[in-house]
């Protein structure tokens, strides 16, 4: 019984270190309050896919709003363009590992089969590809 409990504890401890950054990525959106949940999710996915190894190396990733632009298309259809800054903070909480800017666009529409959020990387800094 002791061996079973020990083995269970060992597996639990080893499992807590699993993950390659996306699962364990700490993204702080507190300064980007104008982004909705779908935008945040798509942006976090883009960071995890395009910003390796910086996303895995960072202790925290700060996302903050820089500007919001509205484009009225036609009779109440308004597209929203959010420019956000993404800063990768190192393990010591002070060291900046890199900085990027991204454009997150919310296209107006009512078709549920179409993704209305688009994330485009703007800068070509060394933090992301």
Number of helices: 3
Write down how many β-strands occur, each being a DSSP E stretch of 2 or more residues: 5
What is the general shape?
A: elongated
User: Helical amount among residues, as a percent range?
Assistant: 10-25%
Q: Provide the domain count.
A: 1
Largest sheet: 5 strands, mixed
Please outline what is shown here.
The protein is of the alpha+beta class. It has one domain (20-121).
Describe the structure.
There is one protein chain. The chain is α+β, with helices and mostly antiparallel strands. The protein has one domain (20-121). 25% of the residues lie in helices and 38% in strands. The protein contains 3 helices and 5 strands, in the order H-E-H-H-E-E-E-E. It has helices spanning 2-15, 37-50, 54-57; strands at residues 27-31, 60-74, 77-89, 96-106, 117-121. A 5-stranded mixed beta sheet has the order 1-2-3-4-5. A hairpin with a 6-residue loop joins strand 3 (77-89) and strand 4. It is elongated and about 60 Å long.
Task: Give the arrangement of secondary structure elements.
Blueprint: H1 2-15, E1 27-31, H2 37-50, H3 54-57, E2 60-74, E3 77-89, E4 96-106, E5 117-121
What features would you highlight for this structure?
129 residues; alpha+beta; 3 helices; 38% strand
């Amino acid at each position: 019984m002791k061996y079973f409990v020990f083995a269970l504890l060992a597996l639990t401890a080893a499992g807590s270190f699993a993950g390659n950054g996306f699962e364990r990525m700490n993204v702080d959106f507190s300064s980007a309050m104008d982004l909705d949940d779908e935008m945040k999710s798509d942006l976090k996915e883009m960071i995890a896919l395009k910003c390796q190894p910086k996303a895995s190396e960072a202790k925290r990733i700060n996302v903050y709003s820089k500007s919001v632009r509205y484009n009225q298309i036609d009779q109440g259809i308004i597209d929203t363009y959010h420019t956000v800054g993404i800063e990768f903070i190192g393990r010591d909480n002070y060291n900046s590992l890199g900085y990027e800017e991204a454009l997150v666009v919310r296209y107006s529409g009512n078709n549920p089969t179409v993704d209305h959020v688009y994330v485009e990387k703007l800068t070509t800094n060394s933090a992301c590809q």
